Amino acid sequence: MKKLSLLLFIHFFAIHIFAGQVDTIEIYSPSMQIRVKNVVILPAGYENKTNLPTLYLLHGYGGNHKSWIQIKPELPALATQYGMIIVCPDGKNAWYWDSPTNQAMKYETYVSKELTGYIDSHYKTKKDKSGRAVTGLSMGGHGGLWLGFRHPDLFGACGSTSGGVDIRPFPNNWEMKNALGDYSENSQRWDNHTVINQLHLIKPGLAIIIDCGTEDFFYEVNENLHKEMVYRNIKHDYISRPGTHNGAYWSNSIEHQLLFFNNFFTR
Fold it and tell me: What's this model's pTM, rounded to 2 decimal places?
């Protein structure tokens, strides 16, 4: 009995030491005048650390701030392994734009200014682009590249997994017209709000990782983005492997992306 109790104590102690800490916090957004929920994952031993890099991890359409920790329960252990903070904001179904038609949808401003500003002022972060990265899945993959390309002085690295990197082939999907209007009447606006048309904003030195499964409905647009970046001689990592648009693929792909971002943070 004593031996069993000791083993249980050791198991509990190991989880406490190596699993990290998961908190849910609410941050007020002045631009949208709402409170936004966010999951913040701290590495184990956080209280004894300083100058930690931060990865902003964005969910997909229909998800929320809890999506990534549900898809990848090992994230706290991975945050500990790599010594980084992971932040998962609730982006609703807003595609991480500032909508030109709906003033209540300013999630680009929220992530790039309000959230990053709060995290840097309340946590032991490295307050420089060399210590910040952003990525996500599906809608969040679009958001990771959209924010990374458009805010090169804020994020030193960015990525996408199964990302909607060109929205124009999907004009009636995922509530995008709620933010941009109907494609048939606002094609220029859609052109201006798709990732593949933001490549001219990329500055040398931005670390970029993109991956997509070969059976994913976003596979073709990811292939097109990769080819266009090769044509423009934009350095990036591109991974294409068997897989579809689901949690099993993302649970696997995020491990590759975390390694990529860790290499960026520690280079």
Answer: 0.92
Each residue's pLDDT tens digit, 80-106: 999 999 999 999 999 999 999 998 899
Cα–Cα distance, 62 to 81 (Å, whole number): 29
**How buried is 51 (Cβ within 10 angstroms: 0-12 exposed, 13-18 middle, 19+ buried)?**
exposed
- Alpha-helix residue ranges (DSSP H) falling in the chain: 2-18, 67-71, 75-82, 107-109, 116-122, 139-150, 176-180, 187-192, 219-231, 247-266
Residue 55: CB atoms within 10 Å: 27
Q: Give dist(CA 5, CA 21) in Å, integer.
A: 24
Q: Which two tokens stand for residue 123?
A: 């946590």
Interacting residues of 98 by C-beta distance below 8 A, sequence separation 6+: 105, 106, 107, 108, 109
Q: Which residues contact 152 (CB under 8 A, 6 or more apart)?
A: 129, 201, 202, 203, 206
The predicted pLDDT at position 18 comes to: 59
Percentage of the chain exceeding pLDDT 90:
90
Q: Which of 130, 34, 162 is nearest to 89 (CA)?
A: 34
Q: Which residues are paired to 254 by β-bridges?
A: none
Average pLDDT over residues 44-70: 97
Q: At what angle do helices 75-82 and 247-266 cross, to 10 degrees?
A: 10
Burial class (CB in 10 A: 0-12, 13-18, 19+), 186: middle
Containing 57, the helix (H) or strand (E) segment is strand 54-58
Given a contact cutoff of 8 angstroms between Cβ atoms, the answer to whether 164 and 144 are in contact is no
